[in-house]
Amino acid sequence: MSYSVIGLAAQDQHLRTRIAACIAQEDPHGEGHPVARADAMQWQVVASPGLGDAYGYALSTSVPDPGNDPAVITDGALLAAVAQFLPQAG
After folding, report:
1. How far apart are CA 51 and CA 12, in angstroms?
2. CA pair distance 8, 46, nearest whole angstrom
3. What's the CA gap between 47 and 2, in Å, rounded?
């Protein structure tokens, strides 16, 4: 994945909202508002293996709103990327 694609994905507001929703569901008692937490991790999440590639492919094939399209980045793929930045349950 290119740095250019990571930069575009990291600024995608719909993808940011999906990351925040994932955080809200998976770590509802975590510190801070889910949107603030999404802002803090969005760059790392979109740089995770597979996500940037999927986003870049969607851009190259003219998908109109790749960050909001679960066919581009599935909820499962998003969860896998976000989970690595959430505290481990224990």
Report:
1. 13
2. 9
3. 9
**Which DSSP category does 41 fall into?**
H
pLDDT at 35 exceeding the cut of 80: yes
- Cα angle 73, 79, 83 (rounded to 5 degrees) comes to 140
Span 42-61, pLDDT tens digits: 999 999 989 999 999 999 99
Which residues fall within 8 angstroms of residue 65, CB to CB, at 6 or more apart? 14
Residues 31 and 89: beta-carbon distance below 8 Å? no
**Spans of all domains in the chain:** 3-83
C-alpha to C-alpha distance for 48 and 28, rounded to whole angstroms = 22
* Closest by CA position to 54, among listed 24, 19, 15, 13: 15
The one-letter code for the residue type at 1 is: M
